[in-house]
Each structure stands twice: as C-alpha cells, then as structure tokens.
Design brief:
Helix content is 63%, strand content 5%.
Length: 538
C-alpha cells in the first residue's frame, strides 16, 4: 500500500467517524439546514423540480443542485433523515481527495504534498465542522478544484478539451451556488502568464500562444454559462417576473455590491482568518518554513496557489456581504502551500513544537470540564452547565496525545477530528434541547392532519416543513397590516405559532416548546381574538 493510498484510507476513516457522530447527535440546525431540507421536501412533495419553492413561494436565494441531489437520494433510498444530510459531507470528502489529486498534478515528483495536504485540511477545525453541515459551500469547493485541475492540465498539454471540461465543472458549480464560482476560478485563469511558464517542464514540447490560452478561458466560461442557462432560462420563465429578476440580478451582481445581509467591513476576513485555520495557525513549524514563500524562487504551482488564495481573499473582502464559509473553496490552496513548504518531513523537528497546538486542545477541554462547576452567571455559563462536560476530557486527551508523541501533521489531524467528535458529544444536550425543532414540527403536522389551519407569527424560514413532513404551507402573519385579523376571522378553528421571551400571563397556550432562548407557544385562534396582541413577542 502506497503512502497516498494509506492517507486516503485514513481520511475516509476519520471522515466517517466525524460525520456519523455529528449526524447522530446534532439535529438539522435552523434556520439554514432546515430551510434547505424544506425546499427539497417541497420538490419531492409537489413533484416539481425546475423552480425551487419554500412554503408555497418560489425560492430564489439558491440554485437547485443541492435540492436535486437530495431528491435523487430519496428516489434511490426512499425518504429518510440521513441522505440529505450526507450530500454536503460527501462533497467535503471529495474535495480533500481532489486536493491530493491536484497536488500530484502540480508537483508530480512530490508525493508527500499529495499525502499531507488533505490531512492539513481535515485538521483545520473550521473545515472539519463545516464539512458536516448541509450547506452549499462544500459543493462549490469541489467544483472549483475540479475546474482548476482541468485548467492546470490544459496548461501542461495545451489542449482546448481541458478548457471545455473546466467549463463543465464551472457550469455545475453555477448550479451549486451561482456565479460565485467565477470569483474563485477566473483570477487564476486570467493570471496564467504569472504561473504557467514557471509550471512547465523545460523539456515540454508545448509552445504557449497566449491568445490561444485566453481563447480557451473564454471557451470555458462560455460552456459554463451555457450549462447554467440550461436551467436558468426555463426556470426564469416558469417562476415569474420576480423570480426571474432575482436569479439573474438580485442573487448575483446586486448581492455583491449591495448585500441585504451579512454586511461587514473590508478587514473582517483578515481578522477572522487565524481562527479559521486553527490549530495550524499556532503550530511553529509552519511559521518557520513560511519564509520560503518570500525568500525562495517560487515555482509555478506555488504561484498558482498564492494567486488562488490571495485573489479570492481580496475580492471577497471587497464584497459587501461576508460569511466565514465563503472562503472554504480556498482551503485547498492553503493546504497545498503549507504542505509544500513543510517538505517531506511534515512531522516535528523541535521538542517544544507540540506545546502550542496541544495546549490549545487541553485548555479547550478544561474549559468544558471545569467551567460548569464554577458558580458563574450569564449565557455562556448557562450553556456550559447544560453540556455533557466530561466529554471535554476527550479534548484534554487529544492535546495530551499531541504533546506526548510530538505529533506532526498526521497526529494533529487525528487529534482535531477526535476533538470535533468530543465537542459534539459534549454539546448534544444543548443542541437537542434548544435547536431540535422536530417536536414543534410534528405538532404542526398533527394540527394540519386534523384539518386545523396553522399560521406562524413572524417571518417563517420553512424550519418546520421537512421535520414535520408538512403537506400544506403555513400562513405567515404579523408581517403586514391586517394579515393577523384576516387569518383569525377566516379560520376560527386555526392555530397560531408564536414566539415569546416571557409567556403572557393573561392566557394559557395549548402547548409550549423551547427554541434557543425563546418559548414557542401554540395559541388557539379564539385566545388571540379574546386577547388581541397576545401573539406578539415580549
């Protein structure tokens, strides 16, 4: 068994353990995961796959690929809880494997890079946690790196066919998360004169004519746009004017310059980056070797990775809306760079190198174990008191393991993965008490089955639809004038779901549940008629 094969097996085992534990102990998290499950459920229920719908309205915020894949699994395995939550993690695993493949393409004589780079990715706590979430970014990362593999291959052999394949990957990426994939791909493709000549073997027979290269880039983008339009045009025609305007403008260019959510300052990513790459940010060997990026003559592969990461980091810093996971497609670039500079000895050279990452995990574990025993007040203290705090010993053991064996990349990655498992097991009571909406959703489903219309008082994100297998949209009230009065008068036997910090004292709801720090109350319509304003949040 080769080192690369053994590394893939290790990644698969670690990935399987982490994903299995997280999917078992963590419910689908509102509002994002539950919302995407709701859209997929509507597709399944109504047998309509062209235009995504949420609570009876066209859903324009995301393209359809994730929802299609969820439905494909349901057609194969039947409707179940596990498949839709496994789609994104599978793309995360695929991205790590593709990172190893890209390493072989960039540095065919450096097998160690292909082994180490995926381990570096999985050892990053943010990546490991996020690879278990039902989101779109792992798909985007996968199709980005798949496109770049074809781009590099095109640089080596000069064949337009590889540009077409790159365009196909970008096109599928458009169906995964929209035009954002172009921000990850185009800077690398357009700056080819900075890295292609340094990538080529001196004995290469390929003669570069740059007009031909940029013609290939135009071809790839044209193919990508064609793939995207195969869905967007008929979907825009079927979804109506508002939906058409949203998918062609509102969710692309307009969102870049005028984000309706997550608006943050230019420097935000620079401050957040160290936390995104923990524990590697505090591992001394990386910093000692990082000077190579400034003092050595960079080869084409290093230049490509720096352009890939640096351009995306700069562009996304300019974009008004920012989220941490927007940079996930750049994690392979960082992993490849770090793996290369570490060289064939990705382990430790100095006895104290293990103390910082090891101490980081030990300290985190001690916080989980000790803080619940300290008589403190406040939200953080309250949350820690509800955890299975003894699982913090798993983090202590992981940190101790790093220090004891003077762990290198493989050991730290293993410790990171097991720490994620321990954190989820510790947080299981909090996650299920505060974030599991299944009991609420089933109650709504029972009322709908009994023929009692249900309204949601405040904005509704579809969080109950899949969990309760709801077959009817919820009426949303409390958003515009007279919508509450209209529902109350039209449905005297109806139910209103409302959200309170403190329950009103003048009436008693039919039932109550906990969501985060709020009380979710089921009110009969008659109670709201007798006590106007009782459903308003207090």
């Amino acid at each position: 068994m080769t080192a690369t094969t053994r590394s893939v097996h290790e990644q698969l085992l670690l990935w399987g353990i982490v994903v299995a534990v997280t999917l078992i102990v963590r419910p689908p998290l509102p509002v994002d995961e539950t919302r995407y499950l709701a859209v997929a459920w509507d597709m399944w229920l109504e047998n309509r796959y062209l235009v995504p719908y949420l609570n009876g309205e066209p859903y324009s915020h995301k393209p359809p690929l994730l929802f299609w894949l969820m439905n494909a699994g349901w057609h194969l395995f039947g409707v179940n809880e596990w498949w839709p939550r496994l789609v994104a993690p599978l793309f995360g695993l695929g991205t790590m494997v593709m990172t190893g493949r890209l390493a072989k393409t960039l540095w065919p004589n450096r097998a160690d890079v292909a082994v180490t780079a995926p381990l570096l990715m999985f050892g990053a706590l943010f990546w490991t946690v996020f690879t278990t979430l039902t989101m779109f970014d792992m798909m985007l990362a996968f199709f980005t790196i798949a496109a770049l593999i074809n781009l590099v291959t095109a640089a080596r052999n000069g064949r337009l066919r590889r540009h077409v394949l790159a365009g196909l990957m970008i096109g599928i990426g458009l169906l995964a998360k929209g035009p954002a994939i172009l921000l990850h791909y185009l800077p690398v493709a357009l700056t080819a004169p900075l890295w292609v000549p340094h990538l080529m073997d001196r004995k290469s027979s390929v003669t570069w004519v740059w007009p031909k290269w940029y013609g290939g880039v135009v071809l790839s983008v044209t193919c990508a746009v064609a793939v995207g339009l195969l869905w967007a045009v008929p979907a825009g025609l079927a979804g109506g004017e508002a939906y058409r305007e949203a998918i062609f403008w509102g969710q692309s260019a307009d969102r870049v310059v005028n984000s309706f959510a997550h608006a943050r300052p230019f420097w935000w990513y620079a401050v957040a980056l160290p936390g995104l790459v923990l524990p590697w940010f505090i591992w001394p060997p990386i910093w000692r070797r990082a000077r190579m990026l400034w003092t050595d003559d960079l080869d084409g592969a290093q230049r490509l990775c720096l352009i890939w990461f640096g351009s995306a980091f700069f562009v996304f810093s300019l974009v008004s809306g920012k989220q941490l996971h927007y940079l996930l497609p750049e994690f392979p670039a960082l992993a490849l760079l770090i793996s290369f500079i570490l060289g064939g000895s990705a382990g430790q050279k100095r006895h104290y190198d293990s103390w910082l990452p090891g101490g980081f995990f030990v300290l985190g574990g001690l916080v989980l174990v000790v803080f619940p025993l300290v008589p403190l007040s406040g939200r953080v203290a309250e949350t820690l008191a509800e955890t299975n705090s003894l699982w913090g010993l798993g983090l202590v053991a992981a940190g101790g393991y790093i220090i004891w064996i003077r762990a290198g990349v493989r050991g730290i990655s293993l410790a990171s993965a097991l720490s994620v498992v321990s954190i989820h097991l510790a947080a299981e009571p909090v996650l299920n008490k505060r974030y599991d909406l299944t009991p609420i959703a089933r109650e709504i489903g029972a009322y709908q089955a009994a023929g009692r219309p249900v309204a949601n008082f405040s904005k509704y994100h579809g969080q109950y639809h899949y969990l309760g297998r709801l077959r009817e949209p919820l009426t949303v009230i409390g958003q515009v004038n007279d919508d509450e009065e209209q529902f109350l008068s039209a449905h005297p036997n109806g139910i209103v779901v409302a959200y309170h910090r403190v329950l009103p004292s003048q009436a008693k709801p039919l039932s109550t549940f906990i969501y985060r720090r709020m009380i979710v109350a089921f009110w009969p319509v008659q109670a709201l008629i007798d006590q106007p304003g009782i459903a308003e949040r207090r």
